[in-house]
Amino acid sequence: MLTDIFEGIAYLFEEILFIPFDFFRDLELDSWWAANALNFIFVIICFAAIVYWMKQLKHYNEIQDDDYDPTAHSFLG
């Protein structure tokens, strides 16, 4: 019974959940750029998030919102 559960989990992952990965693996033989389009989208999203984060850090640094006093946090004093 326990082996049936693990074989069912293996079937789920190998035959069902990996279908998109199989598609991209087959697509890579035709077009490397198309196969990696999803990766490029993730890179663009991460780059935009980093730019936004840096702009926010610059904004809060300019208005000096942070308390740089060593006694600002109880665990530092």
Structural overview:
- The protein is mainly α.
- The chain folds into two domains: 1-30; 35-64.
- It is 73% helix and 0% strand.
- It contains four helices and no strands.
- It has helices at residues 2-17, 19-28, 32-35, 37-62.
- It is elongated and about 60 Å long.
- It comes from Salegentibacter maritimus.
- This is Uracil phosphoribosyltransferase.
- The chain crosses the membrane at residues 32-54.
- InterPro entries: DUF6341 (IPR045922).
- Keywords: Glycosyltransferase, Membrane, Transferase, Transmembrane, Transmembrane helix.
Spell out the blueprint of helices and strands.
Blueprint (H helix, E strand, L loop, with lengths): L1 H16 L1 H10 L3 H4 L1 H26 L15
Strand content: under 5%
**Roughly what percent helix?**
over 70%
Low-confidence residue ranges? none
Structural domain tally: 2
Terminal-residue CA separation: 59 Å
Radius of gyration: 24 Å
Taking all residues together, what is the mean pLDDT? 89
Shape: elongated
How many beta-strand segments?
0
Order of helices and strands: HHHH
SS field, number of helical segments: 4
Assign the structural class, choosing from mainly alpha, mainly beta, alpha/beta, alpha+beta, or little secondary structure: mainly alpha
Largest sheet: none
InterPro entries: DUF6341
Keywords: Glycosyltransferase, Membrane, Transferase, Transmembrane, Transmembrane helix
GO molecular function: glycosyltransferase activity
Protein name: Uracil phosphoribosyltransferase
